[in-house]
Amino acid sequence: MRKIRVAHVITRLCKGGAQENTVHTVRMANRNRYEVDLIAGRLTGEEGNLEPEVEAAGIPILSVESLQREVAPFRDWTAYGELTRLFREKQYDIVHTHTSKAGIAGRWAAKKAGVPIVVHTPHGNIFDGYFSPGKTAVFKFIERRASALSDRMIELTPNGVEEYLTEGIGRREQFAVIHSGIDLSPYDDAIRKRDETRAALGVKPDELLVGGVGRLESVKGFSYFVEAAAEFLKAIPPSKCIHAGIGLEANSLAGKTNEWGDRFQFLGLRHDIPELMAAMDILIVPSLNEGMGRVILEAGAAETPCIGSSVGGIPDVIRNDETGLLVPAKDSGAIADAVTKLSKNPDMRIAMGKAARKFVVPEFGLDTMVERIEELYEELIKEKDLDPGR
């Protein structure tokens, strides 16, 4: 049995589910079987930086400066060339690309370099909420072409597979469903510290705490959370809201909540997400487009029910009326009604939280995710006869 050389490619190492899961897949790889590299472009935007954590974990980052999220034809062509040269130099057996932009440049480069196995994880899609209709149509066309370069495409949920097939991207046999994983270890302690965390946030025992966690970008839909809060904070006097995360909409959304004072707190970038999840009574996930919603798993591990938009893979991880409630996207009134419903039914809310915990633990742990990804690699290694002595 020989070691298999694997490259994971992603545009940026910001704070986000796709980035964190990519890093964990590299960090937890079976080093007896795989030699693994992490290739990333330059970080842009205001979404937090994972690079110090990655380096502290002893994971070197192979930097390709031209590989960036924003579309720029000359720079993108440069990234394609740099990746092609790197793949040839390192002689990878597997190139595993993550997110749309890295998937486009990385898959073409891998094929040009003669890499035997190409795997792509979109971590969602760019079909809605990101670009203008014209630009979206161009991306769909490119994704259809790039799918032909993929030996496998990993979707986070069954709904995600159907969305791609509906757009004519890929063939059903190319897809594998492997859920995102989270580190489950902090959540037992976070649940025990619930009262302590709430007190530190200035939340009284009898107050309903409704929260959001994620990037403050339009596609995440937090403007609808803010609009909903204007309704339910009036209807439910003993209630407060928090949000953890940063992004381009931070200032504008914070400005809309000034009249509520400390009843709506924007906490910025936080490193105590398990504790915050356990402190909440309800998590709001108002996304316009979502591959799965890793925060939903984090809330479930903390015994916190979710109210989430019925888009993308969210219906695969929120069991409506069992682990949380699904609402239409872009509907602040529906969010407010759902919050009011759960505020009036604390027994239902607690039961949903317990059911969410049972759904998440242990099925959505990091170990399970990495194990399934490596099982997929072994399936492809066998198909390609890359390790005949195994």
Write the layout of secondary structure elements.
Elements: E1 4-10, H1 17-27, E2 34-40, H2 51-56, E3 61-63, H3 73-90, E4 94-98, H4 100-113, E5 117-121, H5 133-147, E6 152-155, H6 158-166, E7 175-177, H7 187-192, H8 194-200, E8 208-213, H9 222-235, E9 239-244, H10 250-255, E10 264-268, H11 273-279, E11 282-285, H12 294-301, E12 306-309, H13 314-317, E13 324-327, H14 332-344, H15 346-360, H16 366-384
Parallel strand pairs: 1-2, 1-4, 2-3, 4-5, 5-6, 6-7, 8-9, 8-11, 9-10, 11-12, 12-13
Keywords:
44% helix, Rossmann fold, 13 strands, six-stranded parallel beta sheet, alpha/beta, seven-stranded parallel beta sheet, 2 domains, 16 helices, 390 residues
Characterization of the model:
This protein has 390 residues and is of the alpha/beta class. It has two domains: 4-181 and 365-384, Glycogen Phosphorylase B (Rossmann fold); 187-360, 3-Layer(aba) Sandwich (Rossmann fold), CATH 3.40.50.2000. It contains 16 helices and 13 strands. The strands form two sheets. The protein has a seven-stranded parallel beta sheet with strand order 3-2-1-4-5-6-7, with helices on both faces. A six-stranded parallel beta sheet has the order 10-9-8-11-12-13, with helices on both faces. Helix 8 (194-200) crosses helix 11 (273-279) and helix 9 (222-235) packs across helix 14. The protein is globular. The N and C termini lie close together (5 Å). The mean pLDDT is 93.
